Amino acid sequence: MRRKTGEANRIPIERAMQIRYWPKLLPFRHPFTISHGTKTHQPSLIVALTAQGQTGYGEAPAIVYYHIPVEKMIQDLESKQAWLESFAFTEPERFWHYVHHLFPDNPFLVCALDIAAWDLFGKMMQKPLYAIWKLNPRQGPITDYTLGIDRIPIMLQKMREMPWPLYKIKLGTPDDLDMVRALRGQTTSRFRVDANGGWNLEQALETIPTLAQWNVELIEQPLAKGNDQEMEILFARSALPLVADESCVSESDVRSCAGRFHGINIKLTKCAGITPARRMIREARGLGLQVMLGSMNETSIGSAALAHLSPLADFLDMDGPLLLGEDLATGLVIDQGTVKIPEGPGLGVAVHGLDN
Q: Is the pLDDT of residue 122 over 90?
């Protein structure tokens, strides 16, 4: 795609960096269904920041129920592009604060720009991000592979196509236990369950004890966001750890999860990028909460950002490149759940196919 410049919105400000972007509509290998609906393609925005002879890349997938489509990200980006390109880039945290104030209501766009800024910074420093953060790249957990809601024979077929040591099973239907029972009958792999807020308290109290007998290690977002009193009841009675997803979108949500969940799922796109995600991890640890790093079906660009953070996590849900039928970068390797973090500078991935 030819770079959009938004010239009509420009004012005469000296340019210190160049910004390019590409909207992408990426097919899933299989239709992907959760309790919120089904999709066959993942719309995403890829951005590139170029400064001092280096280019960093970032990504933000668009999620329908968060009401920030790719078109909105582009509209906001173009409206402030001149201001962004005037920024004298030195390090990512300072850039994040600048971008956050420019786009206070668009964390998805801020995320894409923040990931690109960290990639750019790593390339300037000639170090991978995990090394900048002084993390051990061999300490991260394995990633699960997600089985979306479908007819039981199809779910079994998907599982056979992708033998994996750890599956995340999307639930939130009247047939939840039948689905998990059928899958458990075909594998000894560990399970995680994600209800995406699709249960009520009574369903959760009835379902979780059975799941605990089937080697399910945790439940993501059993009840809808906002059911705080019912979550406190479930937290006190649950036989399995409960992890907040929709209930923990941004930094301001972390503290409210203590006493209602055992852990939080941090998704870069929702929380506005790597920079706030690192702060959320520190706060969660201080509150005694476990940390999951979660996917929103990113390609290897956004997934590489998760990979570099993964040594800080207890759980990892980073299977976007495995679920998509098309990727936009190489260098990130996921083998039977084990993530090999790229060793090149920045994100460490080689981006391709953006102008197709």
A: yes
Q: Could you tell me if 289 and 254 are in contact, meaning their C-beta atoms sit under 8 angstroms apart?
A: yes
Number of domains, the chain: 2
Better-scored residue on pLDDT, 39 or 123: 123
Please tell me the predicted confidence (pLDDT) of residue 123: 98
Average the pLDDT over each of 7-11, 186-190, 197-201 and give the range with the smallest value: 7-11
R_g of the chain computed on alpha carbons: 20
Indicate whether 153 and 65 sit together in one domain. no
Q: Distance (Å, rounded) from C-alpha 59 to C-alpha 165? A: 28
Domain membership flag for residue 1: no
Residues 174, 112 within the same domain: no
Q: In this structure, what CATH number is given to the domain that contains residue 24?
A: 3.30.390.10
Residues 87 and 103: their CA atoms lie apart, in Å, by 15
Could you tell me whether strands 242-244 and 216-220 are parallel, antiparallel, or unpaired per DSSP bridges? parallel
For 304, residues 6+ apart whose C-beta sits below 8 A from its C-beta are 329, 331, 332, 341, 342, 347, 348, 349
Please count the other Cβ atoms lying within 10 Å of the Cβ belonging to residue 9: 12
Beta-strand relationship, 315-316 and 290-293: parallel
Can you give the residue range of the structural domain that contains 58?
7-126
In a domain, 356, yes or no: no
Residues 152 and 300 both lie in one domain: yes
* DSSP string of 235-246, one letter each residue: HHH-SS-EEEST
At residue 15, the pLDDT reads 80
Q: Which amino acid is it at 184? A: R
Based on the fold, state whether residues 236 and 89 are members of the same structural domain. Answer: no
Which pTM was predicted? Answer: 0.94
User: 269 with 297: CB under 8 angstroms?
Assistant: no
- Over range 87-102, report the average pLDDT: 97
Which among 85, 111, 126 is the end of a domain?
Answer: 126
> What's the pLDDT tens digit per position in 224-246?
999 999 999 999 999 999 999 99
CA distance 309 to 323: 21
